[in-house]
Every structure is written in C-alpha cells, then in structure tokens.
Design brief:
By secondary structure, the chain is α/β, with parallel strands linked by helices. It contains seven helices and twelve strands. The protein has one domain: Rossmann fold (3-Layer(aba) Sandwich).
C-alpha cells in the first residue's frame, strides 16, 4: 500500500506557475498513491513557466469557486512570481487556502507561494521559509522566516526554490501521510 492511498490532494495554481514546482510535487503525491487535482481560477489550461520562459500548459480539474477544502486531505501551493501574486488578489483562492488551516489539514508551499499564506493570515508565529525576496513580507506577516531547504511547522511544509524540490516532495508526502494537524497547530499556537 502506498503512503497516500485514498488521499485527495489539491494543487492551487494559475498562469505563471513555476512548472517544476507544480509538476514534480504533483507526480510525487501521485506516485505515493494520492489523487492530485489542479484547482485554478478558471476552467481550461494554465500556463507554466520555466523561470522566465513559457513552459507547458496544465489542464485545470476544478475551479476554486467550486472547490471546498473539506473535499481534500491536503493542499500544495506551487510558486513562480506571477502565480501567487495573481491568486492572492482573488478572494475565493485566499479563502480556500485559509480553510485548510482552519480544518487543520497539511499544506505545502514553495518559493513565492507563501505570499498566499500571508494573504490568508495564517503565518503569524509560524516558522517557515520561502524565496529569499519574501523574507521581509513573511516577517511583516508575523512569520519566523528562516533560510533552510525545507521547514515544517504544524503540518505546514515550506521550501525556497526549485533546487529544494527533492526535499520538499519527500516532506510533503510524509506530512500528508500523517493527516490532520489540528491538535498540533493548537498546541503550537497555545505555546506562543
């Protein structure tokens, strides 16, 4: 039996997503037995990027307005600069992210994706990492920002960049296999 058999994982992304940060974690959770679904702002396909160049497009499985965090076991937020910058201006996307935290479900965010976490108001007192240029944004949102390959805090897994993907993918599979982190988050919040 694979680690994530029977689990359903949402990937929230839109145009400008860093291709490797969507494709590699998507493949990792599917290899571990999960059903991965791409959730986005509209039906159709989204444009992936390979840094500054256009890459592949990806078929959207569900529109965020029709998605409910309770239908999923975990959430992955890939990076790329344009992707989270666009998503954080869309209320349904921000509420979707916040709901995973309210339900104590594990979340993975890499590169620029922690912008979504700050917008959702879920990083105060949380230890995390991100692309280095987000350090001030994360600290201003109350996070304990560190420069490490992969950081886990109460079911939240964060990494800095595509080079960190092997560690990120391994850690999200591990955290997603554990399931709900509601009690762990409550204990962490009470100790702050």
């Amino acid at each position: 039996m694979a680690q994530l058999d029977g689990k359903r994982i949402a990937f929230l992304a839109t145009d400008g997503v860093e291709q490797s940060e969507l494709a590699e974690p998507f493949a990792a959770v599917e290899r571990a037995g999960a059903k991965a679904e791409l959730v986005s702002l509209a039906h159709g396909r989204i444009q992936g990027m390979e840094h500054h160049d256009k890459g592949k497009t990806f078929e959207v499985d569900r529109v965020v307005e029709d998605a409910d965090a309770s239908d999923y076991d975990a959430l992955v937020l890939p990076g790329g600069v344009a992707n989270p910058d666009a998503l954080r201006t869309e209320r349904p996307a921000v509420e979707f992210v916040r709901a995973f935290f309210e339900q104590g479900k594990p979340v993975g965010a890499i590169c620029h994706a922690p912008w979504m976490l700050a917008e959702a108001g879920v990083v105060d007192g949380v230890r995390l990492t991100s692309w280095p240029s987000l350090e001030t944004d994360m600290r201003n949102a109350g996070a304990d920002w560190v420069d490490e390959e992969v950081v886990t805090d109460g079911g939240l897994v964060t990494s800095r960049k595509p080079d960190d993907l092997p560690a990120f993918c391994a850690k999200i599979v591990e955290e997603f296999a554990e399931g709900s982190h509601a009690a762990q988050r409550e204990r962490a919040a009470a100790s702050r």
